[in-house]
Amino acid sequence: MSAGPLLEARGLGFAYGERVVLSDIAVSLHREELLGILGPNGAGKSTLFRCILGLERGYTGVALLEGEDLRQKSPPVIARTIAYVPQRHHPSFNYSVMDMVLMGTAAQGPIWAGPQVQQRRHACSALERLGIAGLRDRDFIRLSGGEQQLVLIARALAQQARILVLDEPTANLDYGNQIRVLREIKALSRQGYGIMLSTHNPDQALLFTHRIAALHQGRIVAQGPPAQVLTAELIHTLYQVEVELCRDKTFGLHVTPKGV
């Protein structure tokens, strides 16, 4: 991993009116790192992402993009550096997979210009990297949930950004598609991307992430390698359930609910 963070928040806070959503957030993301933001619904994960994506500018503290204040960056510059994969996406029109991925290249050319040869190459390369080039002419809305999520990740790759921010990328996917998507995401971190993703699932954090930041009621309450910081007490704090952390030869460290 590189010495300096690709993305960093220092003392970041945010409120909707009088309702405080984030308080004194300090978190960083490095090259070749997969950072999991772990927490329950309403903890502030999506709001944190909106701040570090430049979609919310009314935060306190500072967000740094490669060491520079994100507030000083224009949206096109941010788009060339950070690619965002939303939790779900419902396009207004029935685009082909290729057209969906080409949308990720919009920041690479003049406004209103159509995709050029280089943008098409980036889109094709992203589809091939994720093993879904065979879907390029399919209708996006007719794909399975796992296929759609891989297409959205391919769109982010076509953006040619070094940082990927993924908001619950396995939400609403079956178990098989969850594993397929997370394997591809972890492979991308090994290829040099800095990746920040949110999840509700402690087992996903244990299996796939390099570090976690546990978010509870708008504050980071634990941060570090998941095998070190994920404890039964932390999981109870986050989710109000009693669990045990078990280790075996087949699955390694994993979470087991008590009383099941």
In sequence order, what are the helices and strands, one letter per element?
Answer: EEEHEEHEHHHEHEHEEHHEE
Portion of residues within helices = 25-40%
Assembly context of the chains: single chain
Point out poorly predicted stretches.
none
What is the end-to-end distance?
Answer: 40 Å
Mean pLDDT: 88
For the largest beta-sheet, the strand count, sense and barrel status come to: 6 strands, mixed
Rg result = 19 Å
Number of helical segments with 4 or more residues: 9
Quick one: overall form?
A: globular
Strand content: 25-35%
- Counting DSSP E segments of at least 2 residues, the number of strands comes to 12
Cross-sheet strand order for the largest sheet:
6-7-8-3-9-10
Helix-strand makeup class: alpha/beta
Describe this structure in words.
- The protein is an alpha/beta fold and 260 residues long.
- The protein contains nine helices and twelve strands.
- The chain has a six-stranded mixed sheet with strand order 6-7-8-3-9-10, with helices on both faces.
- β9 and β10 form a beta hairpin.
- The radius of gyration is 19 Å and the shape is globular.
- The mean pLDDT is 88.
Secondary structure blueprint with pairings:
Layout: E1 7-16, E2 19-29, E3 34-38, H1 45-52, E4 60-65, E5 68-69, H2 75-81, E6 82-85, H3 97-102, H4 117-129, H5 145-158, E7 163-166, H6 175-190, E8 194-199, H7 202-208, E9 211-216, E10 219-224, H8 226-229, H9 232-239, E11 243-248, E12 252-257
Parallel strand pairs: 3-8, 3-9, 6-7, 7-8
Antiparallel strand pairs: 1-2, 1-4, 4-5, 9-10, 11-12
